[in-house]
């Protein structure tokens, strides 16, 4: 039989595929139309991640790409193609999604809610007993800033920080209704923020915190007097090593001359960060162990047993760019130009600088996977994974070419920033859709 998967070439999908291929089954990757063949993209991305060549070849040989349109109820397939694929499939993995934190609600909902419903149309046409594995997010907890979130909880009482969270919440609601109506077997995975300590090659997916680092990279690139290729505040002869410490600098850290950036945030704020390879392994392991009750989805938090302080995240960003970034209870009424620009450039991330909630890991504990070989995350880990910083930051962030006139077109970064520079330190942020 066949496994059908969406999002195979994404940040998580690239880690999950080798596990699925190891089972010896045929895999069909549903991909967006107009892209290069999935086999070509998988080969390039897996090699860039350092996957052994024999594993790369195994994935390329076993995975077959089928171009689809998740915006259509029939996935854009001819009736015979739809029926044939449904007849062959006995397991579905839905990883694809729109992860833009500041993206327009309509676009996020179209992909994350309607796209999920359309994939479930295919699963409904499959034979009895076909199982669905849906990758949601721990952030369906929405605006709840503290307390403990249970796996059984799914309510919008606290509102949502952005359209992305709401869309994933609505997708889970739809899946619950669909499973009840169809008496289907469904597993819902709720991963936290997935990260990696491996620098991302250009053209391959990167973790969201690497995108946060890019936003600060843009700001420091515009600082007057910055030495080419070296973050500000770095003494002559010093450099930044992969752990985030400066070599050639006896302090190993920011100097007094290093620019200070205060970020509005709550003391003790923390986030749950999980290595993406661990997430893929845990999901695959649980998929083989769980036997969900027909009509009642099994929901699992795929999270780290340790929380990571938001201050640690910003320290890693600062280590990359020669900045002292400090969480400060707001409002910050005497903000510098750099601090105002930083706040605007990272506005999509801002709500999370106040979160202190935790997640119960009930399912992982029941299966003795609670601390199973999961790497600890510290500043050095984060610095290593944030190091994909393109040389041409302007082009990478969709910056307008004009220096004095505001661009009429905006481009969204994964951190939700729409930017058009008017000078080295004057950023005119274009509104989404402008």
TrEMBL record:
Q: Which InterPro entries match?
A: FAR_NAD-bd (IPR013120), NAD(P)-bd_dom_sf (IPR036291), NAD(P)-dependent_oxidoreduct (IPR051783)
The source's domain of life comes to Bacteria
Q: Which residues cross the membrane?
A: none
* Thioester reductase (TE) domain location: 5-199
For the region Disordered, give the residue spans: 225-260
A Pfam family annotated for this chain is NAD_binding_4
Which SUPFAM superfamilies does the annotation name? Answer: NAD(P)-binding Rossmann-fold domains
- Which regions are flagged for Pro residues bias? 225-235
* Entries under PANTHER family matching the protein: NAD(P)-BINDING DOMAIN-CONTAINING PROTEIN-RELATED (PTHR48079:SF6), PROTEIN YEEZ (PTHR48079)
- Indicate what this protein is called per its UniProt record: SDR family oxidoreductase
Q: Which organism is it from?
A: Streptomyces polygonati
